[in-house]
Design brief:
The chain is α+β, with helices and mostly antiparallel strands and 188 residues long. Helices cover 33% and strands 18% of the residues. The strands form 2 sheets. It has a 5-stranded mixed sheet with strand order 2-1-3-4-5, covered by helices on one side. A two-stranded antiparallel ribbon has the order 6-7. The protein binds zinc ion (ZN).
Length: 188
Amino acid sequence: MNIRNYTFDEFVERVKAFHGYEAPGVIIGGFMVDLAYRFLPEGWLLDALSETPKCLPDAIQLLTPCTVGNGWLTVVNVGRYALALYNKENGDGVRVFVDTDKLDPWTELKTWFFKLKPKKEQDTALLLSQIKEAGSGICGVQKVQVATQVIQRRRRGSLGVCPKCHEGYPLDDGPLCLACTGKELLYF
Ligand SMILES: [Zn+2]
């Protein structure tokens, strides 16, 4: 079972090189991206949405043109293991999620997904073989219309200079930048 243009083993090697180790979440994410593409027409200019910051964004960045840095991948942390690939013009897209009803046959995979035992007790070889065998069979697919605020999230209008820190910031955020208002606490 291939993952886009990679064999399973080739993709595991790519994951090791990019992510630092053969993270189960990135490998599952590869099957999820592959599945999403099967439901999308050729030639669409795609944007991506990841519903978790963990692992899934790396699968998207390895297998699509969408990265956090180029702005075509939006990460919103609702903590669901799900992604959407969608037409950047109109928000039409496909959402792929892990269908918890389909995990039962895959004991080690289910244990990993729900964090039912400590990582050091995890049988990594069994887990990877179950991921390989299950493929996208543990996933569900939905047609979705991505919300306007997600599509517009990264377009933040014109920039000004924050009167407090004197750095550039989006004026739409208010009279001060979000770091200086304390709305986003970044440093102590
Ligand atoms: Zn500031």
